[in-house]
Amino acid sequence: MQAARAAYLNGALDAAGRAAADLLRVSPECSSAALLVASVHSRAGRHDAALAALEVAVVTDFSIRDTPLYWLVHAQALASSGRLAEARQVWRQQCMTA
User: Fold this and answer.
1) How crowded is residue 10: how many other Cβ atoms within 10 Å of its Cβ?
2) Can you say whether the dihedral through the CA atoms of 56, 74, 35, 15 is positive or negative?
3) What's the pLDDT tens digit per position in 1-18?
4) Total count of domains within the chain
5) Whether the Cβ atoms of residue 94 and residue 66 lie closer than 8 Å to each other
6) For 1-98, where are the E strands, in sequence order?
7) Residue 8 belongs to what domain range?
8) Can you tell me the distance from the alpha carbon of 49 to that of 69, in angstroms, rounded to the nearest whole number?
9) pTM for this structure?
10) In terms of Cα–Cα distance, which of 35, 87, 29 is closest to 16?
11) Contact indicator for 55, 67 with CB cutoff of 8 Å
């Protein structure tokens, strides 16, 4: 997982996505890998794929919703896909519960 995160932070989105996807094939319950896949998709402009990856992350570990990164990626994917009202609602909901 560290190699995937390092690749993501260095801007190597393809490498990060491949490393996280490989990890998910071996450990499908790794919600942090699913969250990284969602982040990669979001940054690459694949917003529907990002939202789908977020759903996978939640299914594998519902507590991932307790992390700020989950809500940030969720709101970004919604906003970037033009779903601004939903993005605002998601962000406000998170801010109220934090």
Assistant:
1) 10
2) positive
3) 899 999 999 999 999 999
4) 1
5) no
6) none
7) 2-97
8) 17
9) 0.83
10) 35
11) no
